[in-house]
Amino acid sequence: MNSLKKTSNIIIGFVLLIAFWQLLIIIGDHNEALFPSPLKVGESIVTLIKDGTIFIHLQVSLFRFAVGYLLAVIVAIFLGLILGRMKRVWGVIDPIVQVLRPVSPIAWSPFIVLWFGIGDIPAIVIIFIAAFFPVLLSTVSAVRKVDKTYLKVAQNFELKQSELMRKIIFPAAFPFIANGLHIALGSAWIFLVAGEMVGAQSGLGYLIVDARNSMNLDIVLAGIIFIGVSGLLLDKAVGLFERWVEKQWGRAGV
Q: Could you tell me if 7 and 67 lie in one domain?
């Protein structure tokens, strides 16, 4: 019943958005070439699906995203679990992280292109940077919030550091780490598209830039819609993974 209600709310939301979009065109009397109508964009979406263009670019973007995001998550969680237990070391590293974190990954693109050339690697590096800091900071914070009782119990059982991390700290910290995973996903997906606009010859970002250069703004809007929907589905996938992990640990519904 709840899922049916959510579905109907989503449909109503999209219908209202399309109606508002069409209303703006009618009231503003915009040239359709400069502000395409929902129908025109819908036709472009169908064309992109039929000729397979969107799937080619989407596959490339998802590959770059998966590599960069997963590498960032693995490295950031590994370092975060260690640094979260080393307060003095983190006290030295934290100011450096806080200086680097606000810098847009795109600001590094001139160096990234010079060092790695043009292709998949620059986009992957940009995604890595975008996803790394949110996961690192959420992991360090989560480790420092672990209930001291758990640590005392582990000490009584004389668990090794590796077992302590794997059996106690990581499971206890995971719900907080998961918040970082969602934040990192959104940030990484945004900068993937931006990165593909800078130094790539394929992907959703490139599709939008190429369509803009050709003044095919209906394709630009179609690409934007695919980017938004793909980002939503990726976030839902992370949510499913989060629930699966918690179910394995017996924390589902907690």
A: no
